[in-house]
Amino acid sequence: MEGYTMSPIDGILDRVEKPSRYMGSELNTYGKAWDEASTRVVWAYPDLYEVGSSHLGLQILYNVVNQHPRALSERVYCPALDMEAVLREESLPLFSLESRRPLQDFDFVGITLQYELTYTNVLNLLDLGNIPLYAKDRDEDDPLVMAGGPCAFNVEPVADFFDLVVLGDGETVVLEIIEVYETWCRAGAPGGRSEILTRLGEITGVYIPGHYVPCYEGEHFRALVPKGEAPEVIHKRTVANLDGAPFPEAPIVPYVEAVHDRAVVELFRGCTRGCRFCMPGMVYRPVRERAPETVEDLAGCILSHTGYEELSLVSLSSSDYSEIEQVLDRLTTDYSDDYVSISLPSLRVDDYSVKLAERVREVRHTGLTLAPEAGTQRLRNVINKNVTDADFQSALKAAFSVGVESVKLYFMVGLPTEEDADLIGIFEMVRACQALYSEHATSRRPLKINLSVAGFIPKPHTPFQWERQLTCDELEERIQRLRDLLPRRGVKFSWHDPATTRLEGILARGDRRLAKVIEHAWAHGARFDGWSEFFDPGIWASAFEAKKVTPASYVRERSRGTPLPWRHLSPGISIDFLWRERLRAFDGLPTGDCRWASCSGCGVCLCSGEKSRGGGHE
Amino acid sequence: MSDPGMRIRFQIRIAPWVRWISHLEYLRMLTRALRRTGVPLRYSEGYNPHLRLSFASARPVGLASDAEHVDVLTKEPVDPEGFGQVLDRSLPSGFSVVKAKAVDPAGPSLASKVNAARYRFVYRMANSDVSLWERAIEDVRGAYELRIIRTRRKKPPREIDLKPHLYRVSVEAKTQDQIWILADMASGSHFNVRPEEFDQVLRRFLPCSLGPDIRCLLIHRLDLYRRCNDLEIKVWCL
Question: How many helices (H) and strands (E) in chain B?
């Protein structure tokens, strides 16, 4: 008689909370034969399973590689603290979910950098996977560790940990990487690790950090000098036609409830609204729309392969999709009998958007979410958030008249040129919201307002990349001021911790000297820094001190001529455009969206040889 | 007008390697598997319509099972066997349909009728002798009472005597390095013995010298049934 076979991993799963995070074998996963694969890639998301499994980008890459005839790809997420403790105690390496092999056994480990505060988790993934932290310490047997995602556009603080970095859309580059790797392997791996890195560096969009040497002048970054043939500037990759681009028709359906537990179809990539604080809006230009027929086909395919009860039409600003009304109409007609609800995240602040949401009855379910970002027209002009008080009020009226009784509002504090009047402006918008409710509400219940405030962080490749970031004390003071202004009743006020905001800002505009600081913080227990319950500012303070790095130098204001550590990582946006936008910001001049207004000269179309496709409802 | 819909009872098997999913995760998985079949099923009325499923019992995380019985309501008449096959194909790997059958729509709920379960406890026994286990089982059978302290969420622990709720205990099989113990016990809303409580009790009668050998590797639910005056009534006959 056959006994039950038990792996060492089964023996530890009953000791952790939520063991299904590490179980694998979810619907629509691949289980390709290890020994038959020419190239083995493990995709890693440096956060918990429930966060990482919702990430669309890695799902796309997972499918692209697994559809390759000879390559295979698997997944791994950051273990929670309890699992980490058990793995370390049992000296078990972190393993992939599919074949349960240590990360070290793969040819490539691809880590997505979505958020600066996951950097200590990146180190934890490498360390638990038995991979040397620094690229320079890896040898022929170690995997090639690659990065991608928005933070790749300033990967410098973690550049030393990566062998290669991909800028921009990854779905075609990854196949080129596999091809180069296969060719090199078939030739008998000539020249070893350094040769394969040189070959990979010849692919457009691939950055090899080891081919550059940084130099500093006192406290300040001076330059990054290319070695040998390495290019001065690395240009991002762009998928020109989304209709031809791969998209997971049978995405993985997690067992653990994911943060976005629903089917997802991407309407378009990029955004040209031009909000001056927004890094994705700058680095992912131009706008590339998926045709409505492709959107509808994908929706049908995904729903039948997953059984999801909800379909989300995502993009950076979904109400800007050219044929949004037609698509919504057809989808609601097609799936109303199947108990599928449709959601539209990232809506603009106006009544048009609210009516769109009402069309799918979403607002009644979830309440209304609006992000005016700033409290006065003056400041909204500075940041180019083209929302007027009239837009805001018409959006609210539209929502209240269909029975909405809760509103979520997102604002930023610490924006360039912000004054007390702008904080008072936020308070006035809240009051206006309450007044409109008593006038237009169809519900008898009291209005609930959730007001959420984030500290402004100047991000690379935005018109505000030269700005000073407020200190913790200054931020604290403004948040306190706002808190004092707001009515106590009916408003739930929440804010991002200023210390977290500051660290994110330091890492966002950092250079390679921060690698030692991140390593020190990680070695002293920093994990999940983006989670307020785990963030420990003390660990970071001592890390900066121990490594003699002045955090303040990273959040200071920089002049036009200051060398920026991310200058060589090009999203195709011209620096003159960014500077021009900065000057217009301080003059309080908005800049139109090039889909409807004239070209703003950002440079991306010239750079990529593409023209934005778009239209909008106007 | 009479409802043309049916009540279909089906039994799911959860393989050992997917036993780590929680009951809530299982419910979500099953809902989506049912939706993928395309069979017209009945949803609840109201704001957030959900599938009308009723479970015989909630399964604790980590329990492998051959006996997850569920009732579902259809909108139209369906062939139960065909339904079982379609659902089986729709389930993710590690889950399968053991059986599917139409039951009386007006009959009692599964949860109200099931009161007993049969489990297989798998132990590692590299150096132990099967006679030690047989003796321990004799001791469990012969004990006057079997008191344990039950921990409860958000409530103080409580002392309970398991003895009247254990129905049958025996050695089921022995492999190279595993021993399988079969145990029947109360299960359900009236009284529920948690499988790990039986493990706790059995260990007391094993010599301490076995040390690390006595580790319960896995618990496998083999069946659910109704026990009535020492008679066993299958779920399918309820």
Answer: 5, 11
Residue-wise pLDDT for A299-356, tens only, equals 999 999 999 999 999 999 988 999 999 999 999 889 888 889 888 887 888 888 888 8
Portion 228-257 of A in contact with B at CB < 8 A: 253, 255-257
Q: Do B32 and A306 touch (CB under 8 A)?
A: yes
Quick one: tokens of A50?
A: 């429930």
B200 interfaces chain A, CB cutoff of 8 Å: no
Q: Which CATH number fits domain B7-111: 3.30.1300.10, 3.30.70.580, 2.40.128.50, 3.30.565.10?
A: 3.30.70.580
* A97: number of Cβ within 10 Å: 20
Q: Does any CB of chain A come closer than 8 Å to the CB of residue B44? A: no
Q: Is A260 on the interface with B (CB under 8 A)?
A: no
**Mean pLDDT score of chain A:** 93
Rounded Cα–Cα distance for residues A189 and A181 (Å): 9
Task: For residue B12, give both structure tokens.
Answer: 């799911």
Domain residue extents for chain A: 8-235, 242-513+549-608
User: B203-207 long-range contacts, Cβ below 8 Å, gap at least 24?
Assistant: B205/B135, B205/B136, B205/B137, B205/B139, B205/B140, B206/B128, B206/B132, B206/B133, B206/B136, B207/B132
Phi and psi at B166, nearest 5°, equal -100, 125
Domain ranges for chain B: 7-111, 114-237
The yes-or-no verdict on residue A359 having pLDDT over 90 is no
Strand partners, A492: A450
ipTM (interface predicted TM): 0.92
C-beta of residue B105 within 8 angstroms of C-beta of residue B42: no
What are the strands, taking DSSP E only, across A325-392?
A: 341-343, 368-373
The answer to whether A531 touches A512, Cβ cutoff 8 Å, is no
* pLDDT of A609 above 70: no
Q: Which amino acid is at A138?
A: R
Largest CA distance in chain B: 69
pLDDT at A610 over 60: no
| CATH number for region A8-235 | 3.40.50.280
In B, minimum Cα distance to A301 occurs at: B36
Q: Per CATH, which fold does A242-513+549-608 belong to? A: pyruvate-formate lyase- activating enzyme (3.80.30)
Which CATH code fits B114-237? 3.30.70
| A27:B178 CB<8 A | no
Pairing of strands B216-228, B63-73: parallel
Q: Of A56, A73, A77, A57, which is closest to residue A65 (Cα–Cα)?
A: A73
Distance (Å, rounded) from C-alpha A302 to C-alpha A28?
Answer: 11
Contact A612, A594 (CB under 8 A): yes
| Cα gap A220→A563, rounded to integer Å | 9
Q: What is the mean pLDDT of chain B?
A: 92
Label residue A463 left, alpha or beta by phi (over 0 means left) and psi (-120 to 50 means alpha). Answer: alpha
Q: State in Å, rounded, how far the first CA of chain A is from the last one.
A: 72
> Chain A partners of B22 at a C-beta cutoff of 8 Å?
18, 20
Nearest to B184 by CA among B138, B133, B116: B116
Tell me if B7-111 shares its fold with B114-237: yes
- Cα–Cα distance, A174 to B210 (Å, whole number): 54
- Write out residues 139-158 of B within 8 Å (CB-CB) of A: none
Q: Which chain A residue lies closest to B178 (C-alpha atoms)?
A: A3
CA distance, residue B179 to nearest chain A CA (Å): 9
Say yes or no for a CB contact (<8 Å) between B35 and A2. no
For an interface test with A, the pick among B14, B22, B27, B35 (most A C-beta atoms closer than 10 Å) comes out as: B35
**B52 CB burial (10 A radius; 0-12, 13-18, 19+):** middle
Q: For residue A52, what is the enclosing H or E element? A: helix A49-52
Q: Mind giving me the DSSP string for A160-177?
A: GG-SEEE-B--TTHHHHH
